[in-house]
């Protein structure tokens, strides 16, 4: 008997889908990409032909009306996430939505409520959280392998400033580095510490050349027991994506925290042990975890409440940068 698979519809021809998420779904074990939609049928068909997708639609509504589509992936601009997530939920489709899932906590709550009411799965596309190494690192921290956690430092930066037409540079659409890449260190700290931050102080460079969005931001996010996340994120800086958990007796270092090789180092007493993890496609892992919830009724890996809490922390960070003051979360 042929195993049932989740049949995906891709909502837009965004580059992140073409580059990463769609190949991951296609590589996964329990999913298939069945259709793609764009506001232009010509663009959708061209995209479908390039990626071997069977069906193309010239509107998002047509995709949502297709009874053969089980789930949709939404990589639309940030300000459209709420609208189309709610429409997808009302159409009975399960949803994987790009990060940040919303523009603020209130929007995230509306989206969660709509999906809960419709009985559909909603997941935020933080692909790195599906890597096995993050589970391993959480266990090492919990078991006291590096002593008591003293702090986390993480960065995610890249330079895309030359592309002035990028939608990430439209403030009203949820542009800026905090929403685009700052979400990674913030979500990672919450994941590894298994708690919520209490306050944040952020400082940012807002570029008039790029719609006055934050092109670089640095911050300190406070957790309990004097522990803090220090981080920076940028869309106009040299590429980096690292994370370090500092403990009283050692530290854990990820040279490629969100993209790239999935190994990590444990450093204690001047000695380094490198833990080699199998580099399984994290987008495929994300899709298969999603499929387990859709097909098997398994609880989603990250509950709805996580979506709301993460958005609350992210928006507080942007508020702090804009107001130039410490913000309580």
UniProtKB/TrEMBL annotation:
Keyword list, A-Z: Oxidoreductase
Pfam families hit by this protein: GFO_IDH_MocA, GFO_IDH_MocA_C3
MF term (GO), any: oxidoreductase activity
Transmembrane stretches, start-end: none
The name this protein goes by in its record: Gfo/Idh/MocA family oxidoreductase
Oxidoreductase keyword on record: yes
UniProt family annotation: Belongs to the Gfo/Idh/MocA family.
InterPro entries attached to this UniProt entry: Gfo/Idh/MocA-like_OxRdtase_N, Gfo/Idh/MocA_domain, GFO_IDH_MocA-like_dom, NAD(P)-bd_dom_sf
SUPFAM superfamilies in the cross-refs: Glyceraldehyde-3-phosphate dehydrogenase-like, C-terminal domain, NAD(P)-binding Rossmann-fold domains
Residue intervals of the Gfo/Idh/MocA-like oxidoreductase N-terminal domain: 7-124
All copies of domain GFO/IDH/MocA-like oxidoreductase, residue ranges: 135-253
Chaperone keyword on record: no
């Amino acid at each position: 008997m042929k195993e049932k698979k989740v049949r995906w519809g891709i909502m837009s021809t965004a580059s992140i889908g073409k580059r990463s998420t769609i190949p991951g779904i296609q590589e996964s074990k329990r999913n298939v990409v069945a259709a793609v939609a764009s506001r232009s049928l010509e663009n959708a068909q061209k995209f479908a032909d390039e990626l071997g997708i069977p069906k193309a639609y010239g509107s998002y509504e047509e995709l949502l009306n297709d009874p053969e589509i089980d789930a949709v992936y939404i990589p639309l601009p940030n300000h459209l996430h709420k609208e189309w997530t709610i429409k997808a939920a009302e159409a009975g489709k399960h949803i994987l939505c790009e990060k940040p899932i919303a523009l603020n906590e209130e929007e995230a709550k509306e989206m969660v409520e709509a999906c809960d009411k419709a009985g559909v799965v909603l997941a935020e596309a933080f692909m790195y959280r599906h890597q096995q190494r993050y589970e391993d690192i959480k266990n090492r921290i919990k078991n006291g392998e590096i002593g008591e956690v003293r702090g986390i430092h993480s960065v995610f930066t890249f330079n895309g400033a030359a592309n002035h037409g990028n939608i990430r540079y439209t403030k009203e659409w949820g542009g800026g580095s905090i929403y685009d890449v700052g979400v990674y260190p913030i979500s990672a700290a919450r994941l590894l510490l298994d708690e919520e931050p209490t306050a944040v102080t952020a400082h940012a460079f807002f570029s008039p050349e790029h719609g006055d969005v934050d092109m670089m931001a640095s911050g300190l996010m406070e957790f309990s027991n004097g522990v803090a996340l220090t981080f920076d994120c940028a869309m106009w800086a040299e590429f980096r994506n690292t994370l370090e958990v500092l403990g009283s007796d050692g530290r854990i270092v990820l040279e490629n925290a969100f993209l790239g090789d999935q190994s990590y180092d444990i450093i204690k007493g001047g000695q380094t042990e490198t833990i080699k993890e199998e580099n399984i496609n994290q987008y495929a892992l994300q899709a298969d975890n999603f499929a387990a919830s859709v097909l098997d009724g398994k609880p989603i890996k990250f509950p709805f409440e996580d979506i709301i809490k993460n958005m609350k922390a992210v928006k507080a960070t942007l508020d702090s940068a804009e107001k130039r003051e410490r913000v309580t979360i």
